[in-house]
Amino acid sequence: MLRKTFLSAALMLPMLSPMLATTPVSAAVLAPWQTAAQQTQININTADAEQLAYALTGVGIKRAKDIIKLRDELGQFSDVNQLMQVKGIGPRMLELNKDRIVL
């Protein structure tokens, strides 16, 4: 069964490739949950936990509350890199979100 499926797909690919190359695909179709968050600028010094969780990739409500706790301890964030003091936020997550973060 698997061989037949693979063979059928291999035979159909040359016929479908011209259609796939010319078919426009919107960003909303590819990743609808990311487009709104990627366009959102978030001020980490004023945002509440729900706003942080929505706008930042990899940040849920628990981590957002940890960000607010650190913000309260520091008074305010003076540098985006201070977010790495929150457990679970490392260089990779910071890089993913850096364009959206405003101080």
From TrEMBL:
Keyword tags: Signal
Highest taxon of the lineage: Bacteria
Name this protein carries in UniProt: Competence protein ComEA helix-hairpin-helix repeat region
GO terms classed as biological process: protein secretion by the type II secretion system
SUPFAM superfamilies in alphabetical order: RuvA domain 2-like (SSF47781)
Record bears the keyword Signal: yes
Keyword Cell inner membrane listed: no
InterPro entries, A to Z: Competence_ComEA_HhH (IPR004509), Endo/Exo/Phosphatase_dom_1 (IPR051675), RuvA_2-like (IPR010994)
Organism from which the protein derives: Pseudidiomarina woesei
Signal peptide interval: 1-27
Pfam families assigned to the protein according to its UniProt record, in alphabetical order: HHH_3
GO CC entries: type II protein secretion system complex
